Amino acid sequence: MAWDPTVLKDWQIAEAAEGNIPTTAQYQEMMGLQKDEIIPYGKTPKIDFLKVIDRLKDKPDGKYIEVTAITPTPLGEGKSTTSIGIMEGLGKRGVNVGGALRQPSGGPTMNVKGTAAGGGNALLIPMTEFSLGLTGDINDIMNAHNLAMVALNARMQHEANYTDAELEKRGLKRLDIDPKNIEMGWVLDFAAQGLRNILIGLGGKKDGFMMHSKFGIAVGSELMAILAVARDLADMRERFKHIVVGYNRQGNPVTTGDLEVDGAMTAWMRNTINPTLCATVEGQPCFVHAGPFANIAIGQSSIIADRIGLKCFDYHVTESGFAADIGFEKFWNVKCRLSGLKPNVSILVATVRALKMHGGGPTVVPGRPLPDEYTRENLGLLEKGCENMVHLINMIKKSGVKPVVCINAFYTDTPAEHALVKRIAEQAGARAAVSEHWLKGGDGALDLADAVMDACKEEVDFQYLYPLEMPLRQRVERIATEVYGADGVDWAPLAEEKAKKFESDPKYADYCTMMVKSHLSLSHEPTWKGVPKGWRLPIRDVLVYGGAKFLCPMAGAISLMPGTSSDPAYRRIDVDVKTGKVSGLF
């Protein structure tokens, strides 16, 4: 059944739908799993990845469906909601379908954006568990990451206090870490702007090494990026050895392997390798694995979850973070390259609201009422804004993947507005469907399901944007011009110096290019909407993630620790002390 989301809040719909959560036996039947391949964990069991993938390694893969979006407003345009909605719609069509979503961060959940559980009747359950820690993967990432920082600070303290001979007696070799060139910081899974820059080690010589340090949000940790791209536990273990924590006084990297902490980090994260099982409110199974933050972390549901999903489901839906210029580009050129998987179709989520913004509509501010331009019919504003959608349709087509535009319907939209967007999308060579999954669940996503199944029947001539042999600066130039629409790239002296060093060192030949820029514009400048013209992409620095094997060219300033707003969600979240039920989670 569908609940009325215009009357009920998301947490109320989730509570009413909890009877639809499959039992362990039902999960086994739907997914073809053996009893010992499900690890009990309350309402949200984990799947034993190694057992499942070994048993099903020779089974043909199902259809691979990726979900991305046009450049969004700061409110988001419903990628998670659409990912769940298409699972429900395909379920209504009687096909074996499931998916993979990313685990939400406590920062957005307790702040403005919410839980990333979808919304209305396109919702993931159990919503409370999903929103508040689930099976502990993010907590394990925090512990493993912060253990590396404990090891780093303790080592710096001991090297400052002991001679080389005294260190040798303790089985240590001097690493000569440069306190002014520390790469890593601490992590916390909240938006805590007061921890962006800190001083640690105050007190005496037994109180740690005194130095400037910092906090980032946990889901932005390199460990989250590694969880997303690792193929198995052995791959994860090997990558953990090469995480760069800082540099020595000669400028050489100091790694977690040098600190001999990589094994203990893997021990903390050994259980994170197994995806968690949740379900849509209509009962379709959905893996939850890896996390958000698509700037430096890859922002994709994991390769592991996709590998299992493609074996267990005839249609597997996976979500990419942020708009297509970031999310799909990284899915296309990083995730698919590392996984060896090739998608059948990409769903490009569009809303009338966001398209009007790109057509020149007023600024959209979270927490404030939408201006009238967004709630009244305005075909001129909408048509101009469709340039952004067409640009991203054309970008997806360059990969050989079939785009399907999902017009994510809001109750303020008009039939004429939907018809206009559909016509423009089809003229650009995409299939398009209006979807009312938020209001009606799977029944509202039937046209979208039909368009996706139709697209999946076609052959895909999948090809990457650039070969792995292409030097870093040429890769960035190609991404900037062919994905973002820039006229070219301008390198700051520091960034160019680093890029030349990486290009000349064979060690970095197989590193992925992980672009870092604003998600609110095709450009680096978040206020430039639509399809900006006559601009160049400035690269100010290049970060190195040695374990994930990412080189991260940075366009503009990106903070790894978001801030909490003046009206955060935690003000409305509470617990019924008689039942223990949580309310207020959007």
UniProtKB/TrEMBL annotation:
Annotated InterPro entries: Formate_THF_ligase (IPR000559), Formate_THF_ligase_CS (IPR020628), P-loop_NTPase (IPR027417)
The enzyme's E.C. designation: 6.3.4.3
Source organism superkingdom: Bacteria
SUPFAM superfamilies: P-loop containing nucleoside triphosphate hydrolases (SSF52540)
Entry keyword annotation includes Hydrolase: no
Top enzyme class: ligase
Record keyword Transferase present: no
Biological or metabolic pathway of the protein: One-carbon metabolism; tetrahydrofolate interconversion
Any one GO molecular function term: formate-tetrahydrofolate ligase activity
Pfam families (UniProt xref): FTHFS
A biological-process GO annotation: tetrahydrofolate interconversion
Swiss-Prot/TrEMBL catalytic activity: (6S)-5,6,7,8-tetrahydrofolate + formate + ATP = (6R)-10-formyltetrahydrofolate + ADP + phosphate
Keywords, alphabetical: ATP-binding, Ligase, Nucleotide-binding, One-carbon metabolism
Residues reported to bind ATP: 73-80
Homology family: Belongs to the formate--tetrahydrofolate ligase family.
Name of the protein described by the UniProt record: Formate--tetrahydrofolate ligase
Organism expressing this protein natively: Sporomusa termitida
